[in-house]
Write a structure and sequence with these properties.
The chain is of the alpha+beta class. The protein has helices at residues 2-18, 91-106, 122-132, 146-150, 181-191; strands at 20-21, 48-50, 63-64, 70-71, 81-86, 111-116, 139-141, 155-156, 158-162, 168-173. Strands 2-10-9-5-6-7 form a 6-stranded mixed β-sheet. A hairpin with a 5-residue loop joins strand 3 (63-64) and strand 4 (70-71).
Length: 195
Amino acid sequence: MRPVIALLPVAFLSLALAGCDKAKPSDVQGKVTDLTASDAMPTDTIGHVDITHRGETAPAVPFVAPDGSPATLATWRGKPLMVNLWATWCGPCVKEMPTLDALAAKDGRFQIVAVSQDMAGQKEVAPFFAKNGFKTLKPYLDKQNVLMEALKMDTLPTTIFYDANGKEQWRVIGAMDWSGTKAQTLIDGAIGSKS
């Protein structure tokens, strides 16, 4: 029994570093997090790169566009697409958002769509975007987590890269410094050319 108890802190630390679980208590949902300079993503942080879904077609489940209209991942077919599933209550998600916004502004070879999994939708996401001043990312919503379920994932953040035909290339499970060299290598490999 003691060896199991001794391993519990290691297990909890591993979960904290990897990302956030999708099931969060309702008291956590609703806290809008502010970013500060001390919250910056450590250089070249990388989650787990998963290629087991390579070649799978992007699911056609609907989520909500910033203007309230329905959207699906097929909306961006014809150009490579990076989809980031995140939530305001997820610490690793919050920390990677500034690097994701900077990447969206810098690299025009593909689109980036950040889809919030917050159950309260715009009530939580709009203030988060306003307070953090994101310049390029737009607040897409999936309050029922149907996209997350269709993608067979249970950890936030998760970022999935699709080619122009809507076929998955890779996914990063956990946070990433999207301004780092590891991220650039992954993206260049998926697109097939350097910027």
